[in-house]
Write a structure and sequence with these properties.
The chain is mainly α. The protein contains five helices and two strands. Strands 1-2 form a two-stranded antiparallel sheet.
């Protein structure tokens, strides 16, 4: 009986290998490893995007440029704090999205902030803005967390949907 069993296993193995070869596949292996040569990049987190894109002007902790409320010699606004110590939280998500996407002059602000629409995807912009909003944790004005009015403003002007390009 064991000879019959061994013969059946051999025939089945040859049959499976033949079918897989005919279909262009490789026989399965218990030791198959995922292909590490894949060029699929992991999505970056908001904090990673902030560190590589925003921190050079707004500071590593979102502290903004010193004297951010005074204009530069060219009349442009300095990079403000994004950590809740400035006025970023006064703006709805849609406004913040457009500022990052279109840049300071693109939305009518008198700043030198460049547009990032060609560098960052919609998802990247939202991720970095959500990271910025996380810097507001624990910040209050008159006992109200600053994130609360910002959330209310954003109901009327949310992030654009995936099918809606930024104006």
């Amino acid at each position: 009986m064991s000879t019959l069993f061994t013969a059946a296993v051999v025939v089945l193995t040859v049959l499976v290998a033949t079918v897989l070869a005919a279909c262009g596949g490789d026989p399965p292996s218990a030791h198959t490893q995922p292909d590490s040569s894949s060029n699929v990049a992991e999505p970056r987190s908001g904090s990673q995007i902030y560190a590589s894109t925003c921190a050079r002007c707004h500071g590593s902790d979102g502290e903004g440029e010193a004297n951010w409320m005074t204009r530069k010699e060219n009349g442009r606004l300095r990079p403000p704090p994004l950590n809740g110590d400035g006025h970023t939280w006064h703006h709805a998500d849609g406004v913040l999205y457009r500022i990052v996407s279109e840049g300071g002059t693109g939305v009518g602000f008198g700043s030198d902030m460049p547009p990032f629409k060609d560098e960052l995807s919609r998802e990247d912009i939202i991720a970095v803005l959500e990271f910025v909003k996380s810097l507001w944790e624990g910040k209050e004005i008159d006992g109200t967390p600053i994130a609360e009015p910002q959330q209310e403003f954003s109901l009327a002007d949310p992030y654009p949907g995936p099918e809606q390009p930024s104006p």
